[in-house]
């Protein structure tokens, strides 16, 4: 008769599975908690302590770590000396291992990583030792031992046992799954215990949330993964989709950019993202006002864009959104009438994220290169100290607008030039090889909006994500009507730009912080 060892923390489906195995003639050995529930359901089994001749000790920390168990799992069946040793030491072969581990992930998510490095005992006690060892032993000997780590596989194994078709390919697939599970589990532990920013060895606990419609292009397959230790519930991947077809890879990239940018602001704000760059962003006295201002920045590029709001969407805003083609909208909520209007558009995707975005502390960003990964701190430092460097200092109104434009600059691909009036973007130049070309694009974009704005009410200001290598941007922006500039400073030719600004009675301030975004 074949023997199965069952030791599960999550008992979902285990009684039915054990009964099926018993009906197929399997012997069952089990750990204390699992044995108890099986016996309560009239399923005969032997406890591990009966096999080892040794009780569970150290409050359950040691149960299965015994040669009587691991010898039975690791013995290679077609090696005579292995089988003779089992016989010599009276060790029974174990042909299947069914295990899942202590609920470490749930414990970590309820116990945020402490800044003082005092790790909670709850987390320590949920680090499984014996279960991981059982997995590794069984998976290593997968040709002779079936290993199951997922209750979804119970029915698969039963069906295959009934048809006598548990082949080596299936065993190999289950073994690989077990190793992935233990690797994920270990990465949860290592990430939680690690305080070093860039350690020599890094593992990321990634869990698949869903398949995506496609990648950057329809011929590319894609999937969405979450960080297993993610406890920030304010992020895009925690949002609820309430309408529309499934999201694509590009949708998530743009939603992430939109959601982070719109929460730079406290007043009602809207941002419209296209190809990971904002093509419009504005604050308003209410949501519709913010949306119309954002849209007016570049209504052509807004077609097929991603829209984010930091306040709930009301009926009047929904009516305006309904006038153009939009890929996705994400907001803290929607009024009933707004939702009724928006869901008339079959292809629009609507997401709700009720928790305002909050940046995690000490976030490390990762980016792939061929056969490698780059890691860096997230760019979340707006300035060191804003310092005027021209004869004329900005007016209060210019300062307010410069603050708005500067917050947007770090969300725009380099080279980035942002033109703003009041708390509204009126032109964006993004991702160009030269800064002067970005300015030309921003000025060209501004032509679409000039007739909408009251130019007498707000001055035109400019934000640049990096310093000016030459004075040309200052000179050309003055021709476009710019009166004040914010930029990092630090060029060896800063004086040329300052002189050009002074000659044109422009105000310029520097921040001491660059915001390249590649």
Describe the structure.
The chain has 18 helices and 21 strands. It is an alpha/beta fold and 518 residues long. It folds into three domains: 3-193, 3-Layer(aba) Sandwich (Rossmann fold), CATH 3.40.50; 241-378, AICAR transformylase, duplication domain (Cytidine Deaminase, domain 2, 3-Layer(aba) Sandwich); 387-510, AICAR transformylase, duplication domain (Cytidine Deaminase, domain 2). A six-stranded mixed beta sheet has the order 8-13-12-11-9-10, with helices on both faces. The chain has a six-stranded mixed beta sheet with strand order 16-21-20-19-17-18, with helices on both faces. A five-stranded parallel beta sheet has the order 3-2-1-4-5, with helices on both faces. The protein is elongated, with a radius of gyration of 31 Å.
């Amino acid at each position: 008769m074949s023997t199965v060892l069952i030791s599960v923390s999550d008992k979902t489906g285990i009684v039915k599975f054990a009964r099926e195995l018993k009906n197929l003639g399997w012997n069952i050995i089990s750990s204390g908690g699992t044995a108890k529930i099986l016996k309560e359901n009239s399923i005969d089994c032997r406890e591990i302590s009966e096999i080892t001749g040794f009780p569970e000790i150290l409050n359950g920390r040691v149960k299965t770590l015994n040669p009587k168990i691991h010898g039975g799992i690791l013995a290679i069946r077609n090696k005579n000396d292995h089988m003779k040793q089992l016989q010599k030491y009276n060790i029974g072969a174990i042909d299947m291992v069914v295990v899942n581990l202590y609920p470490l992930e749930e414990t970590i998510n309820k116990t945020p990583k402490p800044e003082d490095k005092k790790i909670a005992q709850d987390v320590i006690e949920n680090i499984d030792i014996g279960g991981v060892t059982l997995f590794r032993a069984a998976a290593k000997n997968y040709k002779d031992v079936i290993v199951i780590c997922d209750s979804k596989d119970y029915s698969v194994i039963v069906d295959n046992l009934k048809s006598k078709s548990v082949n080596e390919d299936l065993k190999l697939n289950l073994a690989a799954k077990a190793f992935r599970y233990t690797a994920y589990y270990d990465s949860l532990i290592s990430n939680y215990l690690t305080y070093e920013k860039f350690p020599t060895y890094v593992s990321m606990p990634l869990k698949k949330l869903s398949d995506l419609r496609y990648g950057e292009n329809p011929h590319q397959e894609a999937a969405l993964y979450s960080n297993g230790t993610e406890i920030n519930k304010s992020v895009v991947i925690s949002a609820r989709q309430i309408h529309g077809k499934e999201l694509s890879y590009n949708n998530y990239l743009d939603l992430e950019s939109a959601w982070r940018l719109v929460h730079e602001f406290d007043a009602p704000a809207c941002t419209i993202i296209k190809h990971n760059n904002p093509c419009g962003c504005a604050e308003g006295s209410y949501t519709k006002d913010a949306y119309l201002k954002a849209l007016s920045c570049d209504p052509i590029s807004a077609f097929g864009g991603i829209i984010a709001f930091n306040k709930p969407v009301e009926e009047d805003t929904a009516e305006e959104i309904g006038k153009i083609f939009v890929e996705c909208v994400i907001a803290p909520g929607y009024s009933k009438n707004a939702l009724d209007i928006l869901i008339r558009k079959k292809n629009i995707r609507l997401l709700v994220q009720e928790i305002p975005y909050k940046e995690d502390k000490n976030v490390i960003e990762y980016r792939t290169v061929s056969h490698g990964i780059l890691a860096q701190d997230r760019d979340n430092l707006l300035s060191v100290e804003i310092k005027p460097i021209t004869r004329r200092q900005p007016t209060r109104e210019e300062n307010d607008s410069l603050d708005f434009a500067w917050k947007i600059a770090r969300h725009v691909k380099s080279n980035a030039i942002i033109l703003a009036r009041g708390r509204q973007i009126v032109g964006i130049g993004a991702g160009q090889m030269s800064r002067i070309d970005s300015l030309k694009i921003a000025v060209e974009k501004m032509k679409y909006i000039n007739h909408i704005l009251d130019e007498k009410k707000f001055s035109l200001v400019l934000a640049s994500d990096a310093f000016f290598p030459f004075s040309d941007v200052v000179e050309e922006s003055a021709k476009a009507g710019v009166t004040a500039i914010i930029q990092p400073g630090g060029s060896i030719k800063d004086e040329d730009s300052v002189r050009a600004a002074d000659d044109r009675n422009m105000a310029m301030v520097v921040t001491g912080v660059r915001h390249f975004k590649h």
